C-alpha cells in the first residue's frame, strides 16, 4: 500500500471506517464524558451525507490527522542509487538516496552517505584516510541546490525514519557503501560516534557496518573507546598499514 493510501486509512479499524462502526452497533456513550456529542445523532448525520460531502469530510479529517501526526511528511524510500558518487570541491565523496517527502514544506528528505577527507582522527597519521559519515539532509523540491547541511542527530533520524522501516534503510545504506568503496580512492576509513557514552545496543549498527565493509575489502584494524571524550572509534583498511621503524 502506498503512503498516500495508508494516510487515507487513518480512522479505520481493520479497514472499516470508524463512522461505519459507530453506525452499526458500537456504543461508546457510557464511556464518554457528558459533554461529548451524542454518537447516535452523529451517526445519523453522517448517514445523511451525499457521496461528495462524505468525500470532502474524509479529506478534511485526513488533513487534520496528518497535521497532528507530524505534518505532511511521507516516508517513501527510494533504493535507486546514482551510478557513481558525487564529489564536491573539497573532495567529499557522497552517495544519496531519498527517504521521503514533505509536500507541505516542499522538501525531499535525503540520506547522505559520505567519505570526508581531512576529517579523520587519523588524518595526520595515514595517507588516503577518509571519515565515513551518515547524515540526513532536507532539499528543496523546486531547487536542487537548496540543500541543508547533514544532520547527524538521533532526533532527526527518529523524525524521518520510522522504526519499522529501519532495516530497509540500512540495506540501501549498505548498497551506498558498496558504491562508494568501489569508486573511492580511500585506503583507510574511520568512524566515530556522534554522541558520547553510547550504550552497547546502539553500537550494534556500527558493528554491522564494519562487517559489511569487511565484505567489500575493508578490514577492521582497530576499535576502541576513548575514556577522555567518551566516544567510540573504528579504523578499517583496504591495504596494509605501514608502521614506522
Give a description of the structure.
By secondary structure, the protein is α+β, with helices and mostly antiparallel strands. The protein folds into two domains: 3-69, no CATH class; 75-237, no CATH class. 32% of the residues lie in helices and 24% in strands. The protein is built from seven helices and ten strands. It has helices spanning 3-7, 18-23, 39-47, 51-68, 154-160, 166-183, 200-215; strands at residues 12-13, 16-17, 73-75, 86-87, 93-102, 107-117, 129-140, 188-192, 219-225, 232-237. Strands 3, 4, 5, 6, 7, 8, 9 and 10 form an eight-stranded mixed beta sheet that branches. The longest helix is centred in the first third of the chain and has 18 residues, at 51-68. It is elongated and about 80 Å long. 18% of the residues are buried.
State the gist of this model.
The protein is of the alpha+beta class and 245 residues long. The chain has helices at 3-7, 18-23, 39-47, 51-68, 154-160, 166-183, 200-215, and strands at residues 12-13, 16-17, 73-75, 86-87, 93-102, 107-117, 129-140, 188-192, 219-225, 232-237.
